[in-house]
Amino acid sequence: MDSLIYGLASALVAMLQALPLSWVARMGRASGGLAFFLSARYRRVVLQNLTLCFAGEKSPEEIRELARENFRRIGENYACAIKTAGMSAAALKPHLEVVGVERLPRQTGDAPLPNVVVAIGHFGNFELYARFHDIRPDYRCATTYRALNQPGLNRLMQSLRRQSGCLFFERRSDGPLLRAAMGGGGIILGLLADQSSKGLRGPFLGHDCNTGLATAVFALRYHADLYTGFCFRVALARWRLELGDPIATHANGHPRSSEDIMRDVNRSLEHAVRRDPANWFWFHRRWKD
């Protein structure tokens, strides 16, 4: 069964990578729009989350239309992520604007290039975060992932991701390898910070939820500058990759608590969600107890 799934998925990947990016984007949007009507379970989750956060600002009709557009965007982004994984920096350049990474530290003298930690979220085509390296090739991008239960699909997914040059570390088994990479310096480590995880219980978009502390812990442990990062869809098959403002990890010469750091991260993520609500991944049960 695993071989069959792998074969079918590989054929789909090959087909999408052979098509023009604009065609892939339109196919993805159509698939997402169809999923809105067919997937009652996920439609219910998205509508519940949007209603929780925007009931005081938008009508039920506006919320439903926002949910429908969110499904279309997610379909577009997932389909395009398969296509853009195999595109060179030159081929992708007309479709992607990258801003903010020029502010990252540069190497001085014989000192190693410092590490940078970026709190990222499920915004737009979030697989494009690895493209920070296209603008700052002196850094290597790295992130963590959780392996899929199907070995064949997991192997296919990682083969696509590796084409970007990004380093991927499995969360449960690759801890020593990640620590070794961070020890060498020159790493932009992107960590997803917008999912429910134990650590901090606090407000996000006006309602309490759980936020993990890993992003703050890594920044403090490796004396790394901390930023937020976002991928915004600006048009069909076009994105803007942004490195946000720095998040302070120290105050008055002393480390801030991980909880205080993550509160600032959440505020930055909130601003990005409100900037374009359809651009975020509302499928997560972010506000579960």
Radius of gyration: 19 Å
Count of helix runs: 10
- Contiguous low-pLDDT stretches (5 residues minimum) are none
The secondary-structure element order is HHHHHEEHEHEHEEEHEEEEH
3D shape? globular
Helix content: 40-55%
Q: Proportion of β residues?
A: 15-25%
Q: What is the count of β-strands?
A: 11
Q: Output the structural class.
A: alpha/beta
Span from first to last CA?
Answer: 36 Å
Give, in spatial order, the strands making up the sheet with the most strands: 1-9-8-2-5-3-4
The number of domains:
1
Average pLDDT, to the nearest integer? 92
**Main sheet specs:** 7 strands, mixed
Structural summary, described in words:
With 289 residues, the protein is an alpha/beta fold. It has one domain (2-279). Helices cover 45% and strands 21% of the residues. It has helices spanning 2-18, 21-38, 40-54, 60-85, 89-92, 132-135, 151-162, 175-183, 214-221, 258-275; strands at residues 96-99, 116-120, 140-145, 167-170, 187-192, 199-204, 207-212, 225-235, 238-247, 250-251, 254-255. The strands form three sheets. A seven-stranded mixed sheet has the order 1-9-8-2-5-3-4, sandwiched between helices. Strands 6-7 form a two-stranded antiparallel ribbon. Strand 10 and strand 11 form a beta hairpin. Helix 1 (2-18) runs parallel beside helix 7 and helix 9 (214-221) crosses helix 10. The longest helix has 26 residues, at 60-85. The protein starts with a helix and ends in a 14-residue tail after the last helix. The model has no long low-confidence stretch (mean pLDDT 92).
